Amino acid sequence: MPDLAKRLIETFRWIDLGPESTHLVSDMSGWWRDPEIIAALGPALAGLFRPARPTVVVSPEVTGYLLGPLAAAALGVGFAAGHKEGADRQIAEPVTWARTAPDYRGRTPGLGIRSRLLGPTDRVLVVDDWVTTGAQVRALYEVIQTLGATPVGCAAVVADCDREVTAELGIRSLLTSDDLAPD
Ligand SMILES: O=P(O)(O)OC[C@H]1O[C@H](OP(=O)(O)OP(=O)(O)O)[C@H](O)[C@@H]1O
């Protein structure tokens, strides 16, 4: 196993919120606190798709805003935000939206990208921390295609989805959820 994968596993935690809680909560704060992980994550995610020659990275709000720019910098391309509807601020220009199917928490948020940021010459890499149902990635692909651009795939730190979704959305990851299974 590569050193980065080992370090991601060592610094990840499941948090038990107590007897009232029905599930463990993932805690990735150790990743952002570790200088070696911060330095290695962008190049590692970029390396999953370098041959696809992405021209831009897109990531969903909010954890994607940490990871996407790291991967974009490693690829030498720019970044465009995937906004979630309902944020407490206005976007004062046209945004192209798509609604997600129910995600891993049963939510169906709209995801949107500022329309002027992508065009037909763009090959777009979606980057995220964790993909479960793939609903948010799929909605971003819909927006990307509506804007005339081409999604080349999704680079994730953790993939937790079934084989069909992985193949359909072209998901590649540094870890699978089995690597982070609670004890
Ligand atoms: O595969 P899916 O079922 O679509 O779920 C995966 C998405 O959910 C998580 O983000 P979340 O919406 O919890 O936001 P966060 O980044 O603010 O934690 C994760 O960061 C992905 O974006």
TrEMBL record:
Gene Ontology biological process terms in this record: purine ribonucleoside salvage
Protein name: Adenine phosphoribosyltransferase
Domain (Phosphoribosyltransferase): residue spans on this chain: 44-161
PANTHER family for the chain: HYPOXANTHINE/GUANINE PHOSPHORIBOSYLTRANSFERASE, XANTHINE PHOSPHORIBOSYLTRANSFERASE
CDD domains: PRTases_typeI
GO MF annotation list: glycosyltransferase activity
Organism: Phytohabitans flavus
Keyword vocabulary terms for this entry: Glycosyltransferase, Purine salvage, Transferase
One Pfam family, short name: Pribosyltran
